[in-house]
Amino acid sequence: MSPESPPSRDALHNLCLADPLWxxxxxxxxxxxxxxxxxxxxxxxxATDEDxxxxxxxxxxxxxxRRFQQEVxxxxxxxxxxIVRTYSAFPRGSLAWxxxxxxxxxxxxxxxxxxxxxxxPVDLDQRLDLARALAAALIAAHEAGVVHRDVKPANVLLPAxxxxxxxxxxxxxxxxxxxxxxxxxxxxxxxxxFAAPExxxxxxxRPASDVYSLALTLFxxxxxxxxxxxxxDDASAAQWLRTHRxxxxxLLRRLSPxxxxxxxxxxxxxxxxxxxxxxxxxxxxxRLTALRAQxxxxxxxxxxxxxxxxxxxxxxxxxxxxxxxGLYGAYRAGRAASTPTxxxxxxxxxxxxxAAERPSLLxxxxxxxxxxxxxxxxxxxxxxxVTLSGDGAQTYVATAPGGLVPGEEVVLAFDSFRPxxxxxxxxxxxxMAPASxxxxxxxxxx
Length: 446
Known about the structure:
alpha+beta, Transferase(Phosphotransferase), domain 1, 3 domains, 5-stranded antiparallel sheet
């Protein structure tokens, strides 16, 4: 077998089983994906007592191995709910693997291809939520000093439960695998179809390079999986790099006339040839949040999103303004009928109350292994941060990313909180703090 040839599934599995650390730590092997330099498998970790995803690298060069620990350490610093968690690295000579959070659900590339083939686009509001989640992931990365270098639909995972709406994965993987030679004088780290112009010209990737790749990804999301250039998807790497450097991107509404002009403007700015002309990820989130606020309606409660399961989300570590709705949905139940809203008195003069001073009227109820949060107020709330406490000083935090319209309820399982509460632990108090509004504390009945 040549160093360039990927081993077969059985050959790689046998190679891993020959390592005592592997047999001591893992049980089971389900292949999730494979490429020329790495395989992804699902296995049970005896160390953490849960299923995990392993990205296994074979035939690492000495240079690849030197990068391995550095890139994994950078990825381990990222704890956003919109980023696939990187747990541990295991370099074992030419063989190495990374232990990562397991995300059940398809990747965005496959989802876009499937929907394009079916002629069935995702609802605009849901696509805006997806865009906002990915921009939020880049905020967390860039604030930590980490550049992704390979943002593309194949690296976006869509949790089957819909909360959070998306997770960006494979931070630093392109550098671990080394650069790909694309011209006689230049090296590329990443994927040619999604390379920023400056990267295509041989410069190092920077945060603005991630923004370009994200804008290109979002163009596909909002255009029905079509690129903004007159180039075939299977064009050579050199053709793609020349296109990014020289070819002006089409405007989004050329392919999707129904998208808002503000969205077209944002995506077009992200595709600017000069990295200095692109908005930062934080600006992207602000503009997407404003767009989403304009479109937020009762459609948050889509009929297709009625799966009766408990919501499992990661602890929130992002700025309060970041809100992401669900592509597939979560356990939400309308309660408007049981919570009537009084009509205002026709004789009463209108009173303007600043949004930050309006009571949220959030209510909480304890369930056997979860906490239910109900919006009993008259206005929608977003990004409700929920903090549980008991007899001791330890607190447990989770966030319901997305909006709760009046009368909606969301159920947060205890194992979605960070840290995860001990088994059989019961909270005595809950604090609920929406991104905009007043925090409320409630004593829970046992």
